[in-house]
Amino acid sequence: MAEGSVAGYAAAGGGAAAGRGGASLGAIGRALHERGVPRPRGGSTWTHTTVARVLARAAI
């Protein structure tokens, strides 16, 4: 995946469950929004659902 992508962020440790010392899906979404990473379908804000779906697709 491209640098700066959701999967790249998760691979760097951002995708672990919050209870295991990683970031929550909501925190990943906020970080992506703050960094100006565009959503897959051009929406205005990353949500935990969007992050989860992108990560699920990347795992296939």
TrEMBL record:
Which Pfam families does this one have?
Answer: Recombinase
Q: Which GO terms describe its molecular function?
A: DNA binding; DNA strand exchange activity
Q: Which part of the chain is the Recombinase domain? A: 22-57
The protein, known as: Recombinase domain-containing protein
